[in-house]
Amino acid sequence: MNSVVKRVLLTFTAVPALFSLIYFFPHFNHLPFALLTVGAVIIGSVEMRKIFFSGTEKHFYLIFLSAALPVLTYIEQSFACGTRYLPLYMIAVVSVIMSVEIFSGASDHFTASIERVAKSILLFIYPGVFALFLVYILFMEHTTFLLILLFLMVFANDTFAYVFGMLFGKNNRNIFAVSPNKSVAGFIGGLLMTVVIAFLYQRLVPGGQSIITDLPLLILSLFISLISNIGDLVESMFKRNANIKDSGSVILGRGGLMDSIDSLLLSAPFFYFFLSVL
Prior knowledge:
Elements: H1 3-11, H2 14-24, H3 27-52, H4 60-78, H5 85-104, H6 113-125, H7 128-137, H8 143-168, H9 184-204, H10 208-211, H11 214-242, H12 257-276
Helix pairs in contact: 3-4, 3-6, 3-7, 4-5, 4-6, 4-7, 5-6, 7-12, 8-9, 8-11, 8-12, 9-11, 11-12
C-alpha cells in the first residue's frame, strides 16, 4: 500500500470520525474532545522526547507535566476560577526543570546544562502549551462550528498542498532547505483551497455567515494557511536535527502523531486569539 493510498484511507476514516466526535458529543463543553486532546499531548510528548533526548535521558515526568496543561485549562475554564492557576503552574514547572539541573548537571560538570534545560522546557511547551488553546476554543461561543472550521482549514491546506505539489511542483521545489519537497505550487494550491473550503463551510452551515463574516474569514483562512505551513516546517526542523524521517509510526501513511498535528498545534493559538478580538 503506497503513501497516497494510505493518506486517502486515513482522510476518509479518521477525519469523519473526528468531526463526528465534535458534532455529536458536545456535552460538558466537548469533554470527549478535551480528553482526546490530552491523549494527543501524551503521545506527542512521547514522540518529541525521543527527538529531543537520547535514550539515556529519560525525562518521562515532563510528558505528564505537559499533559496536565489541557487538563488544568479545562478545569479552570469549567469552574471560572477567579485566580488564574495555569500561569503559576507553568512557572512552577519551569522552576523545577531548572532546579533539577542543579543536581543532575554535576554528572558532566554542567557542560551541557543550558542545552538540557532548554530542551526540557521546550518539551514541556511543545506540544502541551500549544494544545491548551484547543481547550480554550471549547469554551467559546459556537464551539462546534469553530472547531470544525479550524480542522477543515488545516486539513485543507495540508491535503491540497500535497496534491498540488505532486501534480505541479516538480520544477518549483526546494524552496526551504529544511523540507526540500515543499513546492511553490503546493503552497499556492494549499492556500487557495484553504480559502475555498472555509467559505464553502461558512455558506453551507446554517447561520455560518452570522458567526464569522466574509472579510474576517478571508483573513483568517489566509493566516491559518501560512501558520499551518510554518508548523509543518518547524516539525521538519526538529526531525532533521534528530536525523529521523518521522516522529513516530502511529498514524497510517503519515508516521507519528506529531507529523499529522504539527500544523494544527501552531494554528490553534492564532485561531483562538484572532476570534477573541473580533
